[in-house]
Structure formats: C-alpha cells, structure tokens
Amino acid sequence: xxxFLTPKQLKPIVDSYLKKQSECSLTDGFNKLREIRDNYLRTxxxxxxxxxxxxxxxxxxxxxxxxESTKQAVKALLDSKILEKxxxxxxxxxxxxxxxxxNIPFACGDLTLYDTAVNIGQLLNPIVEPKDxxxxxxxxxxxxxxxxxxxxxxxxxxxxxxxxxxPGVPNVDLENMLCIYKNLFKKLAEGNTLTPQEIEDAYxxxxxxxxxxxxxxxxxxx
Length: 222
Hints:
mainly alpha, two-stranded antiparallel sheet, 2 strands
C-alpha cells in the first residue's frame, strides 16, 4: 500500500486533535445517549425508547434524514429489540443493522449505518465498538484518499493500517479525524505545509446536539 503522508507530517494534527478532546469528545455524546437510555430503563416508557433510537439515527450526520425514513428505521430497531441483544464484535452489530435498514431510504446509506451502529454499540452491555476495522464513507473516505493511494482505499480498512500514522487515537475517532481534517490532508498531499492556526481552525468539536424528546416524538407520531 502506497502512503502519501508520513507520521511526522500528521503529528501536529494528531496532537491538536487529542488535546481538543478535553473540550468536547465523542465520549461526551455517547454519555448523553447513555443518560437517555438510563432514563428509559427507569420509566419503561416506550416513547423514551423511541426517542433514544431516533437519536442514534439522527444525532450526528443523520440530522438531515427524512422523518418518514426515521420512523421506519426506529420501528425496525424496536421490533428487533436490538438493545437486548449480544454481539461478539462491531462487525456483527453493523451487519444486523444493515439487514434491518436494507429497504429503508437514507437509513441504508453507509454513513447512517455506521453512525447508528456506533451509537447503539455504546448502549450495549458490554459496549461494542469498532476495533479491527475503520469504516470509511463520505468525508472520511475522501480524507483517507489523500493519505493513501485512492486505489487502496475501500469501505472498510484494517485498523493496523492507521496505527502508525495516528498514534494514540482510538479507533472510533479515526473515522472522525479523517473527515474533519480531509482538507488539511489534501493540502499536505499536494506538497504544502500547514500553519498551527490552520490546524486549530479545521477542528470540528463533533458534539451531539439532539433536539428535545417533545420535538422528536411529535415528528415520529406525524
């Protein structure tokens, strides 16, 4: 596999990203979902569960999903009782959701499948998250294309391929970094250098910004 960028070139980006995690990390968003899950476990209210599952679909990239597709996907997840199941690895969870969403417009897209699987995996006991592979779609796949030869980039790549380039970055953050910094990777691949300010400005806090339960339930009931 041909690699265009070196660990030395990527180190300032990696260092900046890891430092920023103290401000707002993916874990902060997962903790919000867990709070809503714990509230459902206390109340047993089906609407609390519907709200939680809708958030798993929409709280990041899926916010543009049509509500009709959201309703179909939430029903599929409800009917499957997915939060009660056990999965040996992320791949089996991802495949289960792919089968559930196979005929649901928008929900069956690569990025929505990945986001939903990652979010649901954080609600399971034990937690199920990407480990052996990095899943690439949309911006993340574009970002990877500036680091590796595009011909070598595919939908799912071994985590080991990225380990030496992004030391200390958890698997679940790799997809996020590849998307956030894709324009910086492009600039480096073109032979340019980056200023500290460029790296600072490129960061996206990727926090979850869910709407209220009232808003979600109104859409799900219409």
